[in-house]
Design goal:
alpha/beta; Elongation Factor Tu (Ef-tu), domain 3; Rossmann fold; globular
């Protein structure tokens, strides 16, 4: 990863706790699905998936979830909001579009995101659209409540690209939510009961990634066709022998 200066363009609160950060960078190349590190004045380096696709350079988009004022994410946002330029390190990660997934002969690519894992999956989706990818692609985004949804304009535009499908699944139903609800994996398996010829990118918390993978494997998904940054920093727990 190389150190790069990034110009801060906008910082916008796009729902009750997620900020969309727009940066401009020069001399950066990356593959859809990779991440960068925001370098704080303290020297701390905080990873965020790049939420834009390579063809959108020199513009970069980040989505930063700030759960409370004592969090590291709050320090990141306060630093970005108070700066004209920030230092980043990029690119990082091997869960990306150039890792061979398009050579696996998979008939179907699942793009699965939980929460702000949306950033990485959005980048992958946008890159596949830009490449005029001719295979089957299904994007599933899981959120806890309707209030957690963001990037509505992007979602509306993505829905217009009919060769691919996109589903937002809210875990807790409410009167204000007219879309799909329930567990994210249930929606995936309802739509695709046989995953033996599929590949998947999964982005979310450690528990979400491995819990989803467990469910996909029961329908034929092979782990060597599943890709997630979680695999690199949180190896899969051993399953108890029965």
């Amino acid at each position: 990863m190389k150190e790069i200066s990034a110009t801060v363009n906008t910082v916008e609160l796009v729902n009750h706790n997620v900020y969309q950060v727009e940066l401009t960078v020069e001399n950066l190349t990356f593959s859809a699905g990779q991440y960068l590190m925001v370098v704080l004045p303290s020297g701390e380096q905080v990873p965020y998936s790049i939420g834009s696709a390579p063809h959108e350079l020199p513009n970069l988009t980040l989505y930063v979830l700030v759960s409370d004022t004592g969090s590291l994410a709050h320090k990141v946002i306060e630093h970005i909001k108070s700066s004209d330029k920030i230092t980043i390190k990029a690119p990082g990660g091997d869960c990306h579009l150039s890792n061979g997934v398009l050579d696996t002969q998979a008939e179907h690519i699942l793009l699965i995101a939980g929460g702000t894992g949306f950033a990485q999956i959005k980048s992958l989706f946008s890159a596949l659209v830009e490449q005029n990818y001719s295979g089957k692609v299904s994007f599933y985004w899981g959120l806890r409540t309707a209030n957690d949804v963001f990037a509505q304009q992007w979602l509306e535009d993505a829905h217009k690209y009919s060769p691919f499908t996109l589903d937002v699944v809210v875990n807790e139903p409410s009167e204000q939510w007219q879309g799909r609800h329930g567990w994210l994996y249930e929606a995936i398996l309802q739509d695709h009961p046989d995953l033996s010829q599929s590949a998947a990118f999964i982005c979310g918390s450690v528990g979400m990634v491995y819990g989803t993978l467990d469910q996909l494997e029961q329908k034929g998904m092979s782990q060597d066709r599943c890709f997630s940054d979680v695999f690199a920093y949180a190896p899969r727990p051993e399953k108890p022998e029965l």
